[in-house]
Amino acid sequence: MDAEALRIEGLTLHYGGSQILHGIDLVARRGEVTCVMGTNGVGKTSLLKAIAGAHPRSGGRYRLCGDEIGRLGAHGLARRGVAYVPQGREIFPFLTVRENLETGFACLPRGARRVPDEIFDLFPVLHRFLGRRGGDLSGGQQQQLAIARALVTRPRLLLLDEPTEGIQPNVIQEIGAVIATLRRGGEMAIVLVEQYFDFAHSLGDRFVVLERGAIKLRGDAASISRADLIAAVSV
């Protein structure tokens, strides 16, 4: 099986008349975490939205597990195995935990519409709170719910946007452990946008640093020193 889950080449993106991304090349492989880093406003979230189909790209090639992707929107890409956990989580506050998880069924064939037991192994707190409304969970629990909802879709590519934002330290550790477990499983590629440097550095197999919508630095964990990475993301 080819380990390459995602390859984008020359990706550009505009909001109205403003160009946000300039010729982005990125590869994400199964069993690896690719970290996209940089200061605020450099295009990290825009890149994830383009990969997820939440905002149409202006140009560039997009291959998913070897298949050329045309102009599929978010739902079409979700059906092809792309799961996106947005910044701010965006769970449904008035639905129960169970109902939030079941919203992931929309992109699955009817025979696959169940919540895998493995999700509760990863997030045992959600099993205890299945009947609780999403809005009544803590911020950390809501983040766990958002990731679990994405995993319900059995993704081949998991996109995580700032999963540690506003989260208490013990839950950050739990989320880091979940990401490490998913990586070891080898069934999906993970693209992580993250400002918390130590969290990203501890998990990343590959790093891409953006500056003004273009790639400033790229490489794998063996080729980029911690000092060089800190310098690149601190400007």
Chain-wise SSE layout:
Layout: E1 4-15, E2 18-29, E3 33-37, H1 44-52, E4 59-64, E5 67-68, H2 74-79, E6 82-85, H3 97-102, H4 117-122, H5 124-128, H6 139-152, E7 157-161, H7 169-185, E8 189-193, H8 197-203, E9 206-211, E10 214-220, H9 226-234
Parallel strand pairs: 3-8, 3-9, 6-7, 7-8
Antiparallel strand pairs: 1-2, 1-4, 4-5, 9-10
Question: What would the keywords be for this entry?
Answer:
235 residues; alpha/beta; four-stranded antiparallel β-sheet
What would you say about this model in short?
By secondary structure, the protein is an alpha/beta fold. Helices cover about 35% and strands about 25% of the residues. The model has no long low-confidence stretch (mean pLDDT about 95).
Description of the structure:
The protein has nine helices and ten strands. The strands form two sheets. Strands 6-7-8-3-9-10 form a six-stranded mixed β-sheet, sandwiched between helices. The protein has a four-stranded antiparallel β-sheet with strand order 2-1-4-5, with helices on one face. With 235 residues, it is α/β, with parallel strands linked by helices. The mean pLDDT is 93. The protein is globular and about 45 Å long. It has helices at residues 44-52, 74-79, 97-102, 117-122, 124-128, 139-152, 169-185, 197-203, 226-234, and strands at residues 4-15, 18-29, 33-37, 59-64, 67-68, 82-85, 157-161, 189-193, 206-211, 214-220. The protein has a single domain (4-90, 155-234), classed as P-loop containing nucleotide triphosphate hydrolases (Rossmann fold, 3-Layer(aba) Sandwich). The longest helix has 17 residues, at 169-185.
